[in-house]
């Protein structure tokens, strides 16, 4: 195996020399392959963008039609020859349209996983492990302390609080892409059939999910409801909105947050979260390590989080590992995962 044939690291980020393109580049490049639509992976300005059809639609919705020189889409499992490399995209289970990038040359198969999770999520295609020589993994929750509970049990905590405090609104901090739609779907799966109220910043992407066939049930814009009507309501909003005057229109709100970071009690206290919900769209420690084993990779590159801990774990099992420390990855997800 010669990893340098298929992947190397440049100031812009991960680069495939055989195909002459970058993956999730940190700045505009001539050709970018993008794993998913979060802004710390998908940035405007690439002369040519390649992604799944869903990610391409998300990118256009967030940045506008003129944000990229050209856009090419590739369905899951479809192969494309680019230069001396063959590329295909397989589901990453992170958010709608998220993909792992599978790269093959004559000597090496590499998988760039992007962000991924292994838990069931009714709003996106599930993660598919791919055997490879080189595996590039995130490590957002790459410490043994992070072991995520079942999302259903966390949603049950929210619904129990709604029943206990019917006079109060329950305002849940969620990120606009992925987390908002997943939490809505989990509420529906738990039998919650009332309208879910949304901050205006969430409506566009919820509409996009529904256009892609993800049923979210009755939704309403929070700004259109009067204060009395919000009693007992579940309200979803970006975390930043719950810390400013926007939340004051809600009747005595219970401030909640849905994030893997809610495992850290100090972080919940710092953000004024009364009801922490550990619901993550990233793999936890056990899932990260199990995925590395499942790929059979002889070499692992680690980025986007607790890199050293996962590298140490790999070394203890005879797997070559290196931390990448790719600039520009992680800021957005650390804030609002």
Automatic annotation (TrEMBL):
Xref: PANTHER family: BLL1145 PROTEIN, CLEAVAGE AND POLYADENYLATION SPECIFICITY FACTOR FAMILY MEMBER
InterPro entries, A to Z: MBL, RibonucZ/Hydroxyglut_hydro, Xnuc_lig_assoc
GO molecular function: RNA endonuclease activity
NCBIfam families: Xnuc_lig_assoc (TIGR04122)
Protein name (record): Putative mRNA 3-end processing factor
Organism of origin: Rubrimonas cliftonensis
């Amino acid at each position: 195996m010669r990893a340098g044939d298929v992947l190397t690291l440049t100031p812009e980020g991960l680069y495939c020399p055989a195909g002459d393109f970058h993956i999730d580049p940190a700045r505009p490049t001539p050709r970018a392959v993008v794993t998913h639509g979060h802004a710390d992976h998908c940035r405007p300005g690439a002369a040519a963008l390649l992604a799944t059809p869903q990610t391409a639609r998300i990118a256009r919705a967030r940045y506008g039609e003129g944000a990229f020189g050209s856009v090419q889409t590739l369905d899951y499992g479809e192969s494309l020859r680019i230069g001396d490399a063959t590329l295909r995209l397989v589901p990453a289970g992170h958010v709608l349209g998220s993909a792992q990038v599978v790269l093959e040359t004559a000597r090496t198969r590499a998988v760039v996983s992007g962000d991924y999770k292994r838990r069931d999520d009714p709003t996106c295609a599930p993660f598919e492990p791919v055997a490879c020589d080189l595996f590039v993994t995130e490590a957002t929750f790459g410490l043994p302390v992070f072991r995520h509970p079942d999302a259903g049990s966390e949603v049950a905590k929210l619904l129990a609080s709604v029943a206990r405090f019917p006079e109060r609104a329950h305002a849940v901090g969620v990120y606009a892409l992925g987390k908002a739609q997943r939490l809505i779907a989990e509420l529906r799966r738990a039998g919650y059939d009332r309208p879910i109220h949304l901050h205006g910043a969430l409506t566009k992407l919820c509409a996009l999910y529904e256009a892609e066939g993800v049923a979210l049930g009755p939704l309403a814009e929070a700004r259109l409801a009067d204060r009395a009507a919000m009693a007992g309501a579940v309200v979803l909003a970006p975390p930043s909105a719950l810390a400013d005057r926007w939340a004051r229109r809600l009747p005595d709100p219970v401030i909640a947050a849905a994030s893997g970071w809610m495992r850290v009690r100090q972080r919940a206290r710092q953000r004024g979260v009364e009801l922490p919900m550990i619901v993550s769209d990233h793999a936890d420690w056990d899932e990260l390590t199990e995925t590395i084993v499942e790929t059979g990779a002889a070499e692992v590159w680690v980025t986007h989080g607790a890199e050293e801990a996962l590298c140490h774990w790999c070394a203890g099992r005879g797997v070559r590992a290196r931390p990448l420390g790719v600039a520009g990855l992680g800021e957005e997800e650390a804030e609002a995962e």
